[in-house]
Amino acid sequence: MKLGFLFPGQGSQSIGMGQDLYEKYEIVKEVYKKVQELTGVDIAQITFKGEEEVLNETKHTQLAILTMSLGILEILKQHNIYAEVTSGLSLGEYAALICSQAISFEEGVKLVQKRGQYMQNLAPKGEWLMAAIMGMNEEEVKEICQQVTKGFVVPANFNTTGQIVISGEKQAVEQAEEVAKQKGVKKVKILKTAGPFHTEKLIEASKALRKELEGVTIHDFTIPVVKNLDGRLYNKLEDVKDILARHIISPVRFSNSLETMLNMGVDTFVEIGPRKNIIRICKTIRYQ
Length: 288
Known about the structure:
Shape: globular
Largest sheet: 4 strands, parallel
């Protein structure tokens, strides 16, 4: 058996996620406590007893999902369960880098806090949406976006051949949804996100994060990590900081990441987060 860990991104959050683990495992409580000490944010209160609209704020969502993922990771360590390769979808790439020890727990948590703040506060004004288009390939989704006349919208996450996420202005995404349905698309799902993520519209957030990354120490990888930018393994010679800065404004090539892991011989995937969204993607790719 070759085990691969997968960490989810924004959109998988919900009130109460991780509370059962928090109450059952002392090591999980310690993770939440440590995150609060590092950030000054009571992420347990926000996640377990807060309002959904507060949890859905990008600055809280990213920290909440990361904290839960790191708590689960500690449980797996206690049971001597380790991955041979790991990857994450968007935000999840930070959990993967922490898992590999390329970025320390402390710096990783602080970095994700800043990332969430920048992506929320430095996004251009306006109403933004992301939506998953089901049942269309990459070229078909690109063509739909090009037909939109009501604003900015582009493909942002290439999850599988039949699940591609678009990102942009609310009215443009809604028009893209209409066009997709006219073309017989199976389903369009609006995601619980609040910005034009993985598009050029977040260039200011990317610049701010790049400055933040200057003070971060990158360590040797203890296990391989597959990156979103191109679906390939991080190379020790690559500039991890540059990749993470570009990550915010670049499409997520997650289907390529999963293909790389499958080609490496991974036969067992474990999703470490609130839901089973990535595992569903894995099954789709595995049996294409």
